[in-house]
Structure formats: structure tokens, C-alpha cells
């Protein structure tokens, strides 16, 4: 038996406990420590209950509502996945996309911001920006907000050398041509795959002697000569039939880090100018992109003029330029020289931030 002095606090109830195989001193210390632990736990629980009772009901309801909203937001955002490139295998097995005529995507929607010239375009853009900000964030949207708010003034007051037709993003560095280092990774990747793209073009071009315009090619309006294009991606929309004919080139697009593939300003195509062709001066739709031309066949007498500055293409080399500047192209060679052929792909302007790219993909999504 353990005898405990009656004056010791909270130990009078332990006098009758039998602790086998323990010395009296060790048993007493263990029991006292255990008793104080239980008392501490009881006091902690009581304090927590009293804190809940004393808590203001309105504050508790507010915190609960905010927590529910946060959980809903995380669930809603988590459900939305970025639209990846369709795999080539899916294209091979999938049904034909709707809205295709001769392998070329024509806009069927009067609400398309890329083709719309209505006075309500800015309202549409601002509505899309607000919808994006509600889903994600206003962070980093200052320049886009400024551009949409004052779009009319920007487009009307721009100097004639640079005047994009649809959307102008302010405060971007402007230059008719860009150095190769502006998008070094993608430029080098395209040039390393020059032979791959050229081989797929030559296989396509064999069909030309058999008919005036083979399936998948688009004839463009020019004052003289012929300008035809073969689109893999047209205004942010993949052309499945054409991609099946150039599977390696299409796969290459998925490896480019800055290719614009999810909004209406993104294109990828093979562009062919016959001898004697003149593409008259015109402006591109926006300054958020830079256009990349990879020379496939570049005979003499061919020239690109952007912002009044002439340049020539070179086979296996990329030429980067801002097509929101006034630009034109010429092929003044002879029939013996053959056509001028480039692979054209639209890349992001290097000074458009990642958050802005995501927002612009949302605002200018195809069909929005």
C-alpha cells in the first residue's frame, strides 16, 4: 500500500490504489503527473467551449461563408483545364471537324471578335476581361484593361506605319523586325527541323500538277500572281485534315514554347507565292504576336517589306517580324525560279507576360 500525507493536494483519492512492482516514490510521481495531465486537458476543453460560447455569432457566420466560398472557388478553378493540342493519333482516328471547307476553317459566328468590325467590339472585349478576372484574378491585367478601355483612341491615333486592325496592347516595344534571340528556343527548334517540314511540303506540292487547287489549300486574293496557303492552325483552330497530311510538322508545333495556339491570333501554315505575285501592303490584326517565317524555298527576286524596311528570306533560316506594321511581299522572279515557300507560325511577343497571355487566350478564344 502507498501512504500519502493528507496535506498533499489532489492525492487523497490515491491512497487506496495498489501499484504492483513499483517503488512508492516512483508510483507517487507517476500518479500525480497523470492526474495533472487530465486536469490540464479538462481545463483546455472547458476553455475552448467557453471561447465558442463567447464568440460573436455574426463573425462566426461570416468566417464560415468565406470558407465555403473559398472551397467552391478552388473546386471551380480546379475543374478548368487548359486546352492542349490535339494529338496526331486523335486526329487520325477522330471525326472531321465541323465548319471546314476545302480543309480551311471559315468563321461562322457573327460574334467573333477577330472578324467583327462592329462598334460593340470593345464592349465584348471588356465583358470577356471581366469574366476572366472573376474566374481568376485582376493581377497583371493593368495593361490589357488600359488597352481595351482606350482601344478606339489607340487604333485611330496610331501612326500609319503600325496600325493593328483588331487589338493594340499598349506599352509594348515596337520594331518591324525582331532578332532571332527574341524567341531563341523556338527559332532553333524550327531550324533544326527544316528538312522535316520541307519534305512534308514537297509531298503535298506533288498534287498541284493534277488539279488547280488541291484539297486543303486556300487561294488568297492578290492583284497579280497566286498566293496559296495550307493551314495547320487557322485563327486558333486546328484543321484536322491538313494536320493528318503533315503529322511531323504538327507535332513540332506542340514543342514550341511560345506558339499561339489557343486564341484567334494564332496561325500556322505553309505559304506559297508563285513567280510574279505581289501581296499588297496591309496590317495584321494585333501587336501581341510576332510572325515567324521559316524559309523552305527562297529563290532570288523575293522580298518582304515591313515598316518600309526590306528583307529577304533564306532557306532553313527564320525571319521574325511584327505584322501589325504595314507590310508587303513580292516574288519578282521568273517561272524557272519556282515558288517562294515559307512555313509561317505566330509566336507571342516576347514582352507579353505569362499572366497576360493566359488572359488574352481567354478573351480572344475562338468562337468567343
Enumerate the spans where pLDDT stays under 50 for 5 or more consecutive residues: 1-22, 80-109
| Overall pLDDT level | 80
Q: Quick one: how many beta strands?
A: 14
Share of helical residues:
25-40%
Q: How far is the N terminus from the C terminus?
A: 87 Å
**What composes the largest sheet?**
8 strands, antiparallel
Order of helices and strands: HHHEEHHHEHHEEEHHEEEEEEEEH
What is the CA-atom radius of gyration, in angstroms?
34 Å
Overall shape: elongated
Which percent range describes the beta-strand content?
15-25%
Number of helices: 11
Q: What structural category characterises the helix and strand content?
A: alpha+beta
Explain the overall architecture.
Strands 3, 4, 5, 6, 7, 9, 12 and 14 form an 8-stranded antiparallel β-sheet that branches. A 4-stranded antiparallel β-sheet has the order 8-13-10-11, with no helix packed on it. α4 (121-135) runs antiparallel to α5. By secondary structure, it is of the alpha+beta class. Helices cover 37% and strands 18% of the residues. The longest helix is centred in the N-terminal third of the chain and has 31 residues, at 24-54. It contains 11 helices and 14 strands. Its main location: membrane. It is found in: Membrane.
Amino acid at each position: 500500500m502507498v501512504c500519502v500525507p493528507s496535506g498533499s493536494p489532489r492525492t487523497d483519492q490515491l491512497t487506496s490504489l495498489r501499484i504492483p512492482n513499483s517503488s512508492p516514490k516512483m508510483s507517487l510521481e507517476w500518479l500525480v503527473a497523470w492526474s495533472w495531465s487530465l486536469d490540464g486537458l479538462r481545463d483546455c476543453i472547458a476553455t475552448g467551449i467557453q471561447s465558442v460560447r463567447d464568440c460573436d455569432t455574426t463573425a462566426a457566420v461570416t468566417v464560415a461563408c468565406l470558407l465555403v466560398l473559398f472551397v467552391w472557388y478552388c473546386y471551380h478553378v480546379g475543374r478548368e483545364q487548359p486546352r492542349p493540342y490535339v494529338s496526331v493519333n486523335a486526329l487520325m482516328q477522330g471525326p472531321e471537324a465541323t465548319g471546314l471547307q476545302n480543309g480551311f476553317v471559315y468563321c461562322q459566328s457573327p460574334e467573333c471578335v477577330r472578324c467583327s468590325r462592329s462598334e460593340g467590339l470593345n464592349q465584348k472585349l471588356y465583358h470577356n476581361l471581366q469574366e476572366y478576372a472573376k474566374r481568376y484574378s485582376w493581377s497583371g491585367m493593368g495593361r490589357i484593361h488600359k488597352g481595351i478601355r482606350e482601344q478606339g483612341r489607340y487604333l485611330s491615333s496610331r501612326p500609319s506605319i503600325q496600325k493593328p486592325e483588331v487589338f493594340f496592347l499598349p506599352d509594348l516595344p515596337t520594331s518591324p523586325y525582331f532578332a532571332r534571340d527574341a524567341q531563341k528556343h523556338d527559332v532553333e527548334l524550327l531550324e533544326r527541323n527544316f528538312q522535316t517540314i520541307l519534305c512534308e511540303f514537297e509531298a503535298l506540292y506533288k498534287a498541284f500538277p493534277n488539279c488547280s487547287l488541291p484539297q486543303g489549300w486556300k487561294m488568297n486574293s492578290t492583284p497579280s500572281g497566286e498566293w496559296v496557303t495550307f493551314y495547320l492552325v487557322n485563327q486558333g483552330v486546328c484543321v484536322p485534315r491538313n494536320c493528318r497530311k503533315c503529322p511531323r510538322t504538327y507535332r513540332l508545333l506542340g514543342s514550341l514554347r511560345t506558339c499561339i495556339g489557343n486564341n484567334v491570333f494564332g496561325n500556322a501554315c505553309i505559304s506559297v507565292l508563285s513567280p510574279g505575285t505581289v501581296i499588297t501592303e496591309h496590317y495584321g490584326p494585333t501587336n501581341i504576336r510576332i510572325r515567324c517565317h521559316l524559309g523552305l524555298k527562297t529563290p532570288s527576286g523575293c522580298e518582304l517589306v515591313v515598316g518600309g524596311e526590306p528583307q529577304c528570306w533564306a532557306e532553313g533560316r527564320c525571319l521574325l517580324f511584327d505584322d501589325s506594321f504595314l507590310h508587303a511581299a513580292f516574288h519578282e522572279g521568273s517561272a524557272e525560279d519556282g515558288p517562294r515557300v515559307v512555313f509561317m507560325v505566330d509566336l507571342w511577343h516576347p514582352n507579353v507576360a505569362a499572366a497576360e497571355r493566359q488572359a488574352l487566350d481567354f478573351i480572344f478564344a475562338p468562337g468567343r
